[in-house]
Amino acid sequence: MIINDTVMQVLGSSVLVGTVNETKKENGWLFAKVEWIPTDAHQGLSTNIENMLEIRRQDYNPETEWVRCSKLININPEALIEALHQCGQEMQPEYAN
Predict the structure, then answer these.
(1) What torsion, rounded to 10 degrees, do the Cα atoms 80, 82, 87, 90 define?
(2) Interior CA angle at 75 toward 73 and 77, to 5°?
(3) Average of pLDDT values for 3-8?
(4) Is the sign of the CA dihedral 82, 88, 89, 90 positive or negative?
(5) Is 1 helix (H, G, I), strand (E, B) or coil?
(6) Is 3 in contact with 22 (CB distance < 8 Å)?
(7) Residue in 74, 66, 79 with CA at minimum distance from that of residue 6
(8) C-alpha closest to that of 7 among 63, 83, 80
(9) Mean pLDDT over residues 63-90, rounded?
(10) To 10 degrees, the CA torsion angle through 52, 58, 63, 68?
(11) For tag attachment on the chain, is the N or C end more exposed, with fewer CB atoms within 10 Å?
(12) Of 12, 61, 81, 42, whose CA–CA distance to 34 is shortest?
């Protein structure tokens, strides 16, 4: 994984998509800092983290922004969009003339 790679992370039923901004190696693991695309899934996750920190009375720790690369999926956006488009076409019912 290198800087500017497009990646996604699946968390439960949410899919986050973003671009790798930085990488670092620590304790034999490669980590990435990702600039996530602002989607409803990302906003929901951010809100949950803010609520959790408030309940625990903890301050935000920027180290939590680093994601282990083994938890990220490197993607080709154009190929993924094309595959989803094809999948959507196959799912549409065919109508007889």
Answers:
(1) -170
(2) 145
(3) 94
(4) positive
(5) coil
(6) yes
(7) 74
(8) 80
(9) 86
(10) -30
(11) C
(12) 42
Q: Is 47 helix (H, G, I), strand (E, B) or coil?
A: helix
Prediction pTM value? 0.70
Confidence category of residue 31, pLDDT binned at 50, 70, 90: very high
pLDDT of residue 37: 85
> What pLDDT is recorded for position 88?
75
Query: 19 φ, ψ to 5°?
Result: -120, 135
Amino acid making up residue 77? P
Name the token pair of 26.
């620590």
The two three-digit tokens of residue 16, written as one number: 């986050």
Q: Which amino acid is at 32?
A: A
pLDDT of residue 96: 47
Give the DSSP letter of residue 3. Answer: T
